[in-house]
């Protein structure tokens, strides 16, 4: 005789499994650094996100002007489940004239943007 699992157990378990990717939260930028020469920079950003695998991971970060215009993007090609936080660099970032700082924000495959941004003061 087969044992039957009551619906009162099955539905909460299925709901739990369906919601699991959302628990990783949004991707945050903990810190960033810039090395620049003549307004062309290499920017390193440290991103924190509870990657759960290919279904929910931080998949890129971007550099924005203070007005919110994207000027560069660093694609992250795989989850970093066992490396948190992690730091990745992006070279050849061309900074428009008159800008003394940029914003760095991360994106994840479930929540899009919305985590903690980092304001990076650029070297003179």
Task: Give the SSE layout.
Layout: H1 7-19, E1 28-37, E2 40-48, E3 58-64, E4 70-75, E5 86-94, E6 101-108, E7 118-121
Antiparallel strand pairs: 1-2, 2-5, 3-4, 3-6, 6-7
Description of the structure:
Mean pLDDT is 86; it is low at 14-23. 10% of the residues lie in helices and 43% in strands. The N and C termini lie far apart (77 Å). The chain is mainly β and 124 residues long. It has one helix and seven strands, in the order αβββββββ. Strand 3 and strand 4 form a beta hairpin. A four-stranded antiparallel sheet has the order 4-3-6-7, with no helix packed on it. A three-stranded antiparallel sheet has the order 1-2-5, with no helix packed on it. The chain has one domain: Immunoglobulins (Immunoglobulin-like, Sandwich), CATH 2.60.40.
Structural key phrases:
124 residues; mainly beta; Immunoglobulin-like; four-stranded antiparallel β-sheet; 1 helix
End-to-end gap: 77 Å
Q: Give me the Rg, rounded.
A: 19 Å
CATH T-level fold name: Immunoglobulin-like
Average of pLDDT: 86
* % residues in beta strands: 35-45%
Q: What CATH first level would be assigned?
A: Mainly Beta
The biggest sheet, with number of strands, parallel, antiparallel or mixed sense and barrel status, is:
4 strands, antiparallel
Low-pLDDT stretches: 14-23
Output the structural class: mainly beta
- So, the CATH homologous superfamily? Immunoglobulins
- Strand order of the main beta sheet, please? 4-3-6-7
Write the CATH architecture name. Sandwich
Find the count of extended strands (DSSP E, 2+ residues): 7
Fraction in helix: 10-25%
What is the number of independent domains? 1
Give the topology string: H per helix, E per strand. HEEEEEEE
- Helical element count? 1
Shape: elongated
